[in-house]
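Sorry to interrupt, but I need a hand with the structure work. It will help me judge whether the discrete encoding reads sensibly. Write everything out right here, beneath this request:
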Amino acid sequence: MDRTLLVLSLAFFASTLVLALEVIAPPGMKVVILGSGVEVLDIPGVYSRTDVAVVAASAFTAGATAAVILLRTPSTPSRTPKLSDSERRVYEYLLSRGGSAYQSEICEALGFSKSTVSELVRRLELRELVEVRREGLRNLVSVRASWLK
């Protein structure tokens, strides 16, 4: 985890804790000493300006840090996509070849027909796992860079 994300996470946690304590804590009480007796007066539902400022600052800090954390956290694709057996064979073949191969090579290596490989590659392309680039009369199928380790 990078240091900035750690600092943001700590700021989020601290501001959320302060916010919770301010909201949960009872509002101010007034203690009055009268001669030989002590009287405690509750002032229900009254928050001081300081309480309101702390709640507002904590809420803002919690929201801002949460937004930054969410925006900074990269959305990495799952490393185990759900594929059919045939799709997985094509995908694993591409990985074994360094991430790319011509469509005709896939047919020969895996024993699939041209139409079957074409359909499998199309499905992998729709799932954004591979990209196809036309080179003359051949199609070069490559695993997308975001999926390579």
Summary: The mean pLDDT is 83. The helical segments are 3-24, 49-72, 85-96, 103-110, 114-126. DSSP finds five helices and five strands in the chain.
